[in-house]
Design goal:
single chain; mainly alpha; 16 helices
């Protein structure tokens, strides 16, 4: 009778409690195993080592990158985790993973999305130009990507307890999804700062993101338009009406960004909407910003 194989969980415990005792050659052998749980165990071990010292796992970075497109979801997730830890010190080693990390942002599981997004975020400061070729995919993540939803509250009082438990279970996924989208929005903002012309023909795809679920994502979308407008006001003509709509956003900083973007866009048609904001917005600083922007647009019309 074939004996069931055992997953070497002790290696995970050793990586966390006594990382110096881990032999990387032994761990590399795990990546050649046919059983996906064994390969995933190798990734968990590397995650434990990387938490202690990211440099320890650099010899196996290529093996980790290969695991990003594993059919086994937990392995993809742990590969993203390891790469995010390595990228904090050595983003150059993780740069070859960017195409697959961007692809993994479309994963239907929020935890897997988030770990891919974290690995991307760790590379953003050092290599923003590496993401330019992925603009379309990144915009699609924000405009069309998978996003968990919260169930509607039931009318039946007897179901309220069940509903509350369901909300509590889904809340972490909602937070991870929001964090992932915020990271993607920040990536796009950094690209727009460096290469605003890359967005000129893509802005219409961006307009749905102006009404995204979370304020940081909406604000990031506004900032992208702002940087394009700063470089070439004529390039954002079609974005003026969507930006005017953002003046009614629920979040103050998003409205403030929209006001600045309209100024950079030299949008004379925004003068009256800005006057309205200057008269009625509940935030005093924002009223002043709207009035100043409307005055500048009027003087330069």
């Amino acid at each position: 009778m074939v004996q069931p194989r055992k997953v070497p969980h002790h290696l995970i415990e050793t990586a966390q409690s006594d990382p110096d005792e881990i032999d990387l050659d032994e761990i590399e052998e795990l990546f050649d195993d046919e059983w996906e749980e064994i390969r995933n165990t190798g990734l968990k071990v590397l995650a434990g080592l990387a938490l202690d010292d990211p440099e320890r796992v650099t010899p196996l970075v290529d093996r980790v990158i290969d695991c990003l497109d594993e059919s086994y979801g937990p392995a993809r997730s742990h590969a993203g985790l390891v790469l995010s830890l390595v990228a904090s010190d050595r983003p150059d080693l993780v740069e070859p993973a960017i195409p697959q990390l961007v692809a993994n942002l479309d994963d239907p599981t929020p935890m897997y999305q988030y770990r891919a997004a974290r690995a991307i975020a760790m590379q953003l400061e050092s290599t923003p130009e590496a993401f330019v070729e992925h603009i379309d995919s990144l915009v699609d993540v924000l405009a069309e990507g998978p996003e968990p939803t919260m169930p509607e509250p039931p009318d039946d009082p007897e179901l309220k307890e069940h509903y509350q438990k369901l909300r509590e279970r889904r809340e972490p996924d909602m937070l991870r999804s929001a964090a992932s989208n915020e990271i993607v929005a920040n990536v796009l903002v950094e690209i727009a700062k460096a290469e605003p012309e890359a967005f000129a023909d893509r802005l219409p795809k961006f307009f749905p993101v102006l009404s995204a679920r979370t304020a940081p994502t909406r604000g990031g979308a506004v900032e992208v338009i702002r940087y394009v407008a700063e470089a070439d006001p004529a390039a954002v003509t079609d974005a003026v009406d969507p930006l005017i709509d953002v003046l009614e956003d629920d979040t103050t900083f998003v409205r403030a960004r929209a006001i600045r973007a309209l100024g950079y866009a030299e949008a004379a048609e925004a003068i009256e909407p800005l006057r309205s904001v200057a008269e009625s917005d509940h935030d005093e600083d924002l009223r002043e910003l709207a009035a100043e922007t409307a005055d500048w647009l009027e003087a330069n019309a």
